[in-house]
Amino acid sequence: MADTAQPNAELLEWPKKDKRRFLHAVYRVGDLDRTIKFYTEAFGMKLLRKRDVPEEKYANAFLGFGPEHSNFVVELTYNYGVTSYDIGTGFGHFAIATPDVYKLVEDIRAKGGNVTREPGPVKGGSSVIAFVKDPDGYIFEIIQRASTPEPLCQVMLRVGDLERSIKFYEKALGMKVVKKVDRPEYKYTLAMLGYAEEHETTVLELTYNYGVTEYTKGNAYAQIAIGTDDVYKSAEVINHVTQELGGKITRQPGPIPGINTKIVSFLDPDGWKTVLVDNEDFLKELQ
Ligand SMILES: N[C@@H](CCC(=O)N[C@@H](CS)C(=O)NCC(=O)O)C(=O)O
């Protein structure tokens, strides 16, 4: 099919019919053991797996609140010899839901965590939140929420045009807007997008600050990985949507040499990266 041809309606429906799930957020840290210690002791995450790839001079650690076949997790990357990164201004935070923000924040402080915003109601709203920084400077929002199946509940990124981003994530990724909040008194609008309600699963929180259209990306945060049943069909839709809204495919669909897991990688209109990973191949990696 030529790039300019209109894809059929059935293909454009595919992202909504596909089995999509947030798998992990990938980012770089300067000392793997330091972060593992902090996330397990201060946040209460579990270390799920670790792999060292000396021939490529990097190592990974996967941590989360539940197993990877059901929960969203973080994939930390350590590049041999690189001890610090620039987080940039566009990355916002990861979030952890807990029934008692005050208690978790005290535990984090006791483990040497840097509390940058004390617990209390969010400005302009009523949810109780706090902000803490991890050893590399990544911000974690701590959010009060009665028990949830997915404590690792948000990835927040700043975008330059919220309506364009919403269209992109709806059309290219089949997400739904599960919440939208405008706080004119604080000059921002945010949208929560995902595959289920906020308390059920991880959501992508996109924040638009009035009048701000550009942010720096730094080199620390990398991408979100999302599961799919068909990377090839997904790539056809993404290719179409990027022509309409911006963004681009950065890695054509197909198996990764060596691992054989099929993926497709792409950038959204702001340059934020997503990787779609074949669901079956991913489960094989976990065995
Ligand atoms: N200018 C903010 C807009 C987003 C925002 O303010 N988010 C809320 C949480 S939803 C917040 O951080 N509030 C600060 C507070 O309540 O102290 C940003 O880009 O991070």
From TrEMBL:
This protein's UniProt keywords: Lyase, Metal-binding, Zinc
Catalytic activities: (R)-S-lactoylglutathione = methylglyoxal + glutathione
UniProt xrefs under SUPFAM superfamilies: Glyoxalase/Bleomycin resistance protein/Dihydroxybiphenyl dioxygenase
Cofactor: Zn(2+)
Top-level division of the source organism's lineage: Eukaryota
Secretion signal, residue range per the UniProt entry: none
Pfam families for the chain: Glyoxalase
UniProt keyword Cell division, yes or no: no
One of the record's GO molecular function terms: lactoylglutathione lyase activity
Domain VOC, residue spans: 21-145, 151-279
EC number: 4.4.1.5
Pathway: Secondary metabolite metabolism; methylglyoxal degradation; (R)-lactate from methylglyoxal: step 1/2
Role of this protein: Catalyzes the conversion of hemimercaptal, formed from methylglyoxal and glutathione, to S-lactoylglutathione.
Family annotation (NCBIfam families): glyox_I (TIGR00068)
Family, per entry: Belongs to the glyoxalase I family.
Protein name: Lactoylglutathione lyase
Source organism of the structure: Stylosanthes scabra
